[in-house]
Amino acid sequence: MDEVMLAQIGQVLKRYVFNLANLQGMLRLSTPVILSGLSALITSRAGIMNIAAEGMINLCTFAAVAGSYFLGHAIGGVGVALLTGLLVGGFFALFCIKFRANTTVMGIAINITSVSVTMFLCRAIFKQAGAFSDPSIMGLSPIHIPVIEKIPILGPLVSGYSIITYLAWALIPITTIFLYRTRTGWHLRAVGENPQAAETLGINVDRMKFGAMMASGVFAALAALYLSLAHLQMYTDEMAAGRGFIGMSVNTFGGGEPAGVFLSSLLFGFVDTIGWRLQADRIMPPQFITMLPYVATLVFLTVFTVRKNRRLKAALEKAAREDVQERQSTAASA
Predict the structure, then answer these.
(1) Distance CA 63, CA 77 (A)
(2) 33 with 265: CB under 8 angstroms?
(3) From residue 232, how far is each of 62, 82, 157, 291 by CA, in Å?
């Protein structure tokens, strides 16, 4: 009986967890989360909590589809989406830095406005409500690596993804090098850790923050490009589907490090992939399956917070013990 049960459990794990298709799905579905996480990371390093990534992604998904549709080429969609990301990031930075608006309030305003604006534009321009799909929308084709794709297991796992996916992977080491091996990266981290001290060293704090917000808009635009022109070739209302907020979660869970963001995003992509597989087999209601990534977000953040508080408590207790020992040794020597 135990052997039969173990065999059944093994079959379930093989179908829904440990197989090549799930690993491929994990890599695909983690791509927009990686980019959204980098969007949150670059601003957090400048001391800014950017919750506007959700709205940036929504606006850029519509811009990407509209650009591809009217310009007749995927490159047109890429250009329009990146320009939109820069404009929204610049708008966000202008109000938060120049006019000293509250970043949280501005982020909420951008998120709410993006939903209404994209819904209106979809109805006004394309005469359709909720979604727009057309053969004229030119997407980003997958890239097949000639030598690697013929290697068993490794080939299907590494080859055949959109250029945005490969770019997301490349941006992890690039961002790490930027933060820790370049003068601008050092200045950015200094601004986030202590803006007053950075300013006394001659660093233009506002300029660094402005640049971080603009870069955040570019990362959000790349996430939007993947959703609208690579993963799908269409536009739907609220296409970000919470990935802007999940990006903030993976940045927190990853400790504000690019490698941590990448690994955390893979974890979310894996959970999302399992959800899609369960939905395809109709094992449970789709509403519960849709909840899986967000439930995982709450669980991971709870675990991260508990572990962080325990480490902080242990560090404080250790510091207190060392202080007591130092006082005792001082009193004994006196």
Answers:
(1) 7
(2) yes
(3) 12, 18, 20, 21
* Separation CA 59–CA 231 (nearest Å): 17
- Angle in degrees, 0-180, between the axes of helices 53-71 and 74-93, rounded to the nearest 10: 150
Could you tell me how many helices (H) and strands (E) the chain has, helices first?
13, 2
CA angle (146, 152, 155) in 5-degree steps = 40
Residue 250: name the closest of 235, 233, 262 by CA. Answer: 262
Q: Rounded to whole angstroms, how far apart are CA atoms 219 and 236?
A: 20
How many Cβ atoms from other residues are within 10 Å of residue 281's Cβ?
A: 10
Give the Cβ contact number of residue 254 at 10 Å.
21
Distance in angstroms (rounded) separating the CA atoms of residues 216 and 242: 16
Q: pLDDT tens string for the chain (334 positions)?
A: 466 666 666 666 666 666 777 888 889 999 999 999 999 999 999 999 889 999 999 999 999 999 999 998 999 999 999 999 999 999 999 999 989 889 999 999 999 999 999 999 999 999 998 899 999 999 998 998 888 888 887 888 888 899 999 999 999 999 999 999 999 999 999 999 999 999 998 999 999 999 999 999 999 999 999 999 998 899 999 999 889 999 998 998 888 899 999 998 998 888 888 877 776 666 667 667 677 777 777 777 787 778 778 888 888 888 888 877 888 777 777 6
- Cα separation, 72 vs 162, whole angstroms: 19
Q: Which two tokens stand for residue 155?
A: 């080939």
Ordered alpha helix ranges (H), 226-285: 243-253, 258-280
Identity of the residue numbered 166: Y
From first CA to last CA, the distance across the chain in angstroms is 73
**How far apart are the C-alpha atoms of 132 and 238, rounded to whole Å?**
12
Query: Residue 135 has what DSSP assignment?
Result: T
